[in-house]
Amino acid sequence: MPLEIVTVPCRTDNYAFLAHDVATGATAVVDVPEAAPIMNALRERGWRASHILITHHHGDHVDGVKALAAATGARVIGAAADAHRLPRLDEAHSEGDAVRIGMDEGRIIDVSGHTMGHIAFHFPDSSVVFTGDSLMALGCGRLFEGTPATMWASLSKLAALAPETLVCSGHEYAQANARFALTIEPGNKALVSRSQAITAARDAGHPTVPSTLAEELATNPFLRANRAEVKAAIGMPDASDVAAFAEIRARKDRF
Ligand code: ZN
Ligand code: FE
Q1: Interior CA angle at 127 toward 67 and 42, to 5°?
Q2: CATH number, domain at 36?
């Protein structure tokens, strides 16, 4: 049985996720921007948080960890590399390490770039990856600590996962991301129709997260920096993948 995934809106534009193993009742909470909406989401379903998985150290992903851990006794799991600046961890992990939620085994992927020590949690049997502020719906996190090469390497690891993988990322930024993506690839039909679907979803008050990796591969300009048509579109036909990615990221920062 795959993990059951619930998206929990927090603060103004953050998302936390519940990942529930029906067989055992184990429930992971991925990122805790604030405790209250997550406690409510757990209570509504009669679930108890058994694990808290932290993607990275920014306050809008960890501010509620202490309160949620105290209220539930959940095991707090995060990056060994970031243990010095995360809330107190019960388990500290590095790339390749396993994390078990009930019957489902996940793997840590180092996706540094937005911050160094940023990790993603991939559960292949459930076809889901929790990416925080690395790969996002039609976007990627701003490079606060890593270089373009670091982020490109991280995105390339995510791009290699199974295309049907559900991408659970940390923010509702898709509308602004779509406006930007259309400046890079105005003729990308999949992007144009996704952009329309995003507008419709937001008008109806629905989240645009999670998406699938297949959608991101077809439309996300950051993930597509290695494609000849994208390099041509930004006027850099002979650029390396990293240079093209760096240019697209720089344009987004100015957008
Ligand atoms: Zn962040
Ligand atoms: Fe964030």
Answers
A1: 25
A2: 3.60.15.10
163-194 pLDDT, tens digit per residue, is 999 999 999 999 999 999 999 999 999 999 99
| CA 242 vs CA 2, 97, 152, 153, 234: distances in Å | 35, 27, 6, 9, 13
Q: What is the mean pLDDT of residues 138-154?
A: 98
Report the alpha-carbon distance of residue 179 to residue 192 in Å, rounded.
Answer: 10
Is 84 an annotated catalytic residue?
A: no
In the chain, the number of structural domains is: 1
Q: How far is the CA of 73 from the centre of ligand 2 (A)?
A: 25
Query: What does each C-alpha distance from 208 to 13, 152, 177 come to in angstroms?
Result: 11, 23, 11
> Among this protein's residues, is 61 annotated catalytic?
yes
Question: How far is residue 163's CA from residue 225's CA, in Å, rounded to a whole number?
Answer: 17
Indicate which residue of 20, 51, 56, 122 is catalytic: 56
**Mean per-residue pLDDT, 147-160:** 98
Centre of ligand 2 from the C-alpha of residue 232, in Å: 31
* Token couple for 190: 């999949």
- pTM (predicted TM-score): 0.98
The pLDDT tens digits of the residues spanning 81-131 come to 999 999 999 999 999 999 999 999 999 999 999 999 999 999 999 999 999
pLDDT computed for residue 68 by the predictor:
98
Q: Which domain holds residue 17?
A: 4-254
> Is residue 54 within 8 Å of 83, Cβ to Cβ?
no
> 20, 57, 93, 114: which is the annotated catalytic residue?
114
> Considering only CA atoms, which of 17, 130, 29 is closest in space to residue 72?
29
Residues with CB under 5 A from ligand 1 (ion): 58, 133
